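BUG: 3D viewer hangs when loading the predicted structure for this chain

Environment: internal workstation, default settings.
Expected: structure renders.
Actual: progress bar stalls at 90%.

Input used:
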Amino acid sequence: MGEAPADEDIDPEPETPEAPDAGLTAETTDATLEADGGAAVEVQPATDASPEAGNPPEGDASPDAGLAAELQTPAAPDDPALADEEGEAAITDEAPVTWTRGLEPCEFGLGATFALSSIVPPPRDGGYEAPEQVETASLSASLESASDGDLDLAVGFADDAGYVLCRVDADIAVWRPDPGSGRPLIAWNFADGARPVVVGVPHPFNERGTLEQGRYAFDVHGARVLVVSGTHRCAATSVSGCGGETAVCDAGLAPYRLSDPAHSEATLFHHVHVTLTRLLPDDLVISLHGMAEKGVSVSNGTALPVEGGSAVARAMRALQRAFPGQRVTTCNPHPGVSPVPRLCGTTNLQGRLVNGAFDACDEEADHATQRFLHLEQGRALRRTPRAVVDALFGALFGAL
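Structure tokens produced before the viewer hung:
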């Protein structure tokens, strides 16, 4: 089943650069949100299940310990403060020794490095250049060397790929490309307490709020890896050649462009996921998106049935409890819940990859590994990025 093209994630928000942010702003789940149509939506933590048809009975709020064990989740770390943009936390003698200590400190902290205003994309409609084979191979080799703890090779291959490899604090390695190159930014937490999650943000420029969500998932909830696109999805004029259409870049439906990280093999964003899927075969991959519709749609990148204890089912129930006034749906039927096909991620290349599709560009996955979680969110939910991530990670791993 392909995507429903009429429901594509058109998000006509202004794309002017934001002012540099000094870390994430403090949102809470009781914030009043402005819905797409302009009406105020009160978002509050809920004690009862949403009245949406197919919602589960009360008493299903506890996280799935079995799922956490399956994902090889370590004990939750203490809640760290967001990275200071002016510097880094001191490395103490008590901190576990990792290879990242030998890296040069990053010029800026994690917050400033991953701020939207710092990620300068190439111009739209022609500014994107697909990576050359040497870039793809070198960046993959750098990630592999980092996984092996080989500092010299990791730094050398990063340089060959056009990246600066530096560290934030003791255990976090950051791959930073030249601004304007369109290449993705990568942060990898090598601490033992990192949670087995890879968070991808493919469209930070026109799906506002997803970058803040990804950064918060990495900073506070301890996701192992954060990958953020450095290009606008409409920066190329040529098409990707992969299946699916969108109206985001053109006046009407048109094939995905070569620069769209979620729908093109000609992006380093996708190749990073290819490498990480091989290096971290048991990690959950979360893909954060925005849509013009209200509410949220959760899927595993397919429209196939799932069990009631799956990541999709647990995420859906947690979001229903956290956002009772929003329409929370899933593309994956499970006991007591019927599917609603809203942007199911079936054409998402990272989802097809993780779900084992033979050719991610041309073929949908015919089964689900349950290691991919695709989140499409309306604008109101993306204006409270912490609330969404708190609900999601709470359902999968338990509260911090």
